[in-house]
Amino acid sequence: MDIDADEHPGDSHARLKTEMWVEMLMNAGGQPAVGQIGQRFGMDQNQTMSVVQALLPALGAGIQRNVSNEGGIESLLGALSGGNHGQYLDQPELMLREETTADGNGILGHLFGSKDVSRQVAASASAQTGVGSDVIKQMLPLVASMVMGGLAKQSSASNLHASAAPAQGLMGMLTPLLDSNRDGSAVDDVIGMIGRFMTNR
Description:
Shape: globular
Number of domains: 1
Number of helices: 10
Largest sheet: none
Distance between the termini: 41 Å
Strand content: under 5%
Radius of gyration: 16 Å
Order of helices and strands: HHHHHHHHHH
């Protein structure tokens, strides 16, 4: 990967993490779901993908924060195995349904803990992409559902090929995706923001 000489190390780290999340989604069959989200909001594939990429660091940070809590791994395992999230990638047309938005809002509640965080994430993504924050706020729960669908499918595949316990298989999959070294990247900023809102709940 080429890195701009003027690019801050934290920025390049965050960009790499975003690319890894995108790769995870695409490997899990997420391209048609991205297309359906774009169709719902009248956006082309490139514009939709730019919004997805802008939202992924915050969603990844929310997952990391939950996993780092006591019992977080078990909770995530339960959500991935019992939530039927993989259906959103297997049946991408579900991205057009309000039930998917409702499910995504529930996911965001667990990941961010506050609608204020969701609004801040949408505003940040809007500044990056030029897409209105009101539109991105509507897209955010759909992208959250899609991410959980990708994790569910990848986790299932990982456990099929692992002799270890499910939690170990899940962590083996998640470790490359989660930013744990606190190097000043945008992802760590979001983790701190989520933590502040959770503390003040």
